[in-house]
């Protein structure tokens, strides 16, 4: 966002902002599963990487399930994912959104998930939360033909799901 746009947003009430996903998926030719989020949070957009909010449990969950230490740096996160055959991306390429609120998402343009599947060995898709699942089903499933499995969101907004409950639900990814 340019400086004048930042000033404009700060002066008025926050509202939906047109935003483009600015960082690539994490995957390689050996990736076997794809975990899809909805769209990067404000914190993730600032860091230019996935699940950047410090209270998001995504990295803890994946580390625990893969028997890895919780990664700190972006490079450590990429290494852990790729070593374990995990690809990560978001359903949305661009949209209008207020802050990090999934419920405010409008004017969705989806990422080319089908194209990613063709460049890898991915045979299973998991959605990190119901919004990612719903948007994948609406915008991507018709092109991929690959059903997604909906997992509970690792977002701090999903506080009803404790880390042990998330681990129990997310262990389904280990079968792939």
UniProtKB/TrEMBL annotation:
Classification via SUPFAM superfamilies:
Uracil-DNA glycosylase-like (SSF52141)
- Annotated ranges, domain Uracil-DNA glycosylase-like: 24-174
- Asked if the keyword Iron belongs to this entry, the reply reads no
Sorted UniProt keywords: Glycosidase, Hydrolase
Matching Pfam families, A to Z? Answer: UDG (PF03167)
Q: What is this protein called?
A: DNA-deoxyinosine glycosylase
Q: Which organism is it from?
A: Candidatus Eisenbergiella merdavium
A GO molecular function term, named singly, is: DNA-deoxyinosine glycosylase activity
Question: What's the top EC group for this one?
Answer: hydrolase
Which SMART domains does UniProt cross-reference here? UDG, UreE_C
Q: What is its EC number?
A: 3.2.2.15
Q: Which InterPro entries match?
A: Hypoxan-DNA_Glyclase, Uracil-DNA_glycosylase-like, Uracil-DNA_glycosylase-like_sf
């Amino acid at each position: 966002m340019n400086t004048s746009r930042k000033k404009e947003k700060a002066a008025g009430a926050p509202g939906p902002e047109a935003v483009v996903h600015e960082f690539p998926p994490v995957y390689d030719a050996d990736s076997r599963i794809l975990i899809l989020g909805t769209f990067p949070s404000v914190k993730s957009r600032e860091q230019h990487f996935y699940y950047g909010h410090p209270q998001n449990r995504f990295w803890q969950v994946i580390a625990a399930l893969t028997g890895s230490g919780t990664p700190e740096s972006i490079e450590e996160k990429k290494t852990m994912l790729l070593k374990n055959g995990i690809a990560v991306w978001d359903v949305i390429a661009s949209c209008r959104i207020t802050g990090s609120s999934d419920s405010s998402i409008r004017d969705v343009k989806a990422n080319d998930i089908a194209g990613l599947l063709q460049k890898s060995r991915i045979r299973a898709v998991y959605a990190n939360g119901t919004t990612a699942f719903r948007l994948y089903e609406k915008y991507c499933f018709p092109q991929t033909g690959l059903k997604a499995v909906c997992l509970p969101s690792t977002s701090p907004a999903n506080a009803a799901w404790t880390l042990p409950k998330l681990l129990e639900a997310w262990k389904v990814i280990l079968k792939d």
